[in-house]
Amino acid sequence: MRPGNQKRSLSVSSSDALYHAIPQAPVAANPAPRCLSISDTDVELSEAEDEDVLDEPVVAGYLDPRIRWVHFILGSAVLLPWNALITATPYFISRLSGTSLASTFSSYLSITFTISNFGFLAHATATSKQASPARRVLSAMMALAVLTLLLTLSTYTHGPPGLFFAFVIVNGIAQAGAGSYLQTSVIAVASLFGPGAMQSLFSGQAAVGVAVSLVQVLSAAASVHDSDSPSSTIAPRDPITDGKAEEKSAFVFFGLSFLFLLVSAAVYVWMTRLPAYNAVVMSEDGPGKVVTPPADDDQTAETHGLVSSARRRPDARANIIRVAKANLIYELSVAYIFVVTLAVFPPITISIHPTNPATHPLLFSALHFLLYNIGDFIGRYLCSIPSLLIWSARRLAAMSFARTIFIPLFLMCNLQQGDSSSVTSSSTPVINSDIAFFVLLLLFGLSNGYVCSMTMMSAASLEHNRRLKGRKQDIDIAATVASFSLVTGLVLGSAASFAVRSAVCGGCNPFKG
């Protein structure tokens, strides 16, 4: 759109609420119904009212299919760094074989990545008003591509295990930072196109886990097939090979990830040139009703169009605290979902090995990631089926805390520690079946995807969360607080993995393995 002298204004709520960028987490958009208005003086709802929900659907406007698919790709790119790192765990561990770092690597990777993500995310959100989303998206994608390329090249270089450990951790921290800035910018753009684009972004985030795991399974299968060594039939955790199978698998995997990031950047540039994109981002008639003040160039116009230039209200902090208190049950629920998930996946589950000695551990590990991600994808997909939706905060909280049962169930599987010693010594594990373990993983992922998605959707929904009392200006705040609660759960879950490992090994030092 050509810059003009016409004054433009932001069409937001009556209270001039600012845009709140949402952290790196699953996202669902629920626009406020136009006719709903409840005054601030309404009485507090009883617990019985919490069970009542409105069934009126929200009708989204038309969305260009090209915009929808680009956001699907962008959603995949947002979560690719994390999925790439955790799925390549067998390769990283093979490079650390014979050291105490091997058994604790997953926990260290999880906690450093999530803490860094949390910190960078806070800065990215706070500075979102001053940056061009287009510039941030491209810069972040290029940074992620370079970091992924370095991991690809690492399959050709060999050095001390300690140095390799430091390299991967630092690389992960850098990827967490770039991913945080990418997330806030992509969400800023997607929010302007309404729930259709947000749902596509959300689906892309779920699908990338399945795609990444599938690529890893195929590359692992090819690597194992190419190996003529009979050691593929040795018991798990004995030296499998000289690490060549893991290196081949990682090279293919990281190489494809690198190419995907380059394609994603190119696709984003293409989208910014579409008339449909400019009509929404820079027009006051777009679905997001977000318009830019006069600017000297399109980039500046885009920057101002995506965020409010309205003056921050003096009581903004008080509003955040008020909404956080009102939505406390949702925030605790979504945080605990990921406390449980990261407490065992992948730090503990990666240490569970096949009961059949003929199964190659590399392939077993790759299948384990694939099944979890398939379950997670199915769980999120179920949230698109109206008859399967659960909006009650109480029920969602109960489902979140009920997932605790998965922790002891995984500990009953063929869990091994160190290089060869089994946690259960020479005794047979309680769950002595690979199929049973895989079923557990599928259910674990399914419950994670479903409960997390429903909780995030409910927390910021005026139709189904009566705690918001119909205040449209609280939607962004509720979504942001819930998303930060999710990231907090990731951090706490990563830390909890050390506690679980210590309990498993009978009180040993979990930081040394």
UniProtKB/TrEMBL annotation:
It comes from the Eukaryota. GO terms for molecular function: nicotinamide riboside transmembrane transporter activity; nucleobase transmembrane transporter activity. One of its GO terms (cellular component) is plasma membrane. Keywords: Membrane, Transmembrane, Transmembrane helix, Transport. The chain crosses the membrane at residues 72-93, 105-125, 137-157, 163-194, 206-224, 250-270, 328-350, 362-383, 435-456, 477-500. The keyword Transmembrane helix applies. It is found in: Membrane. It is a multi-pass membrane protein. Its main location: membrane. InterPro entries: Eqnu_transpt. Belongs to the SLC29A/ENT transporter (TC 2.A.57) family. This is Nucleoside transporter. It comes from Neolentinus lepideus HHB14362 ss-1.
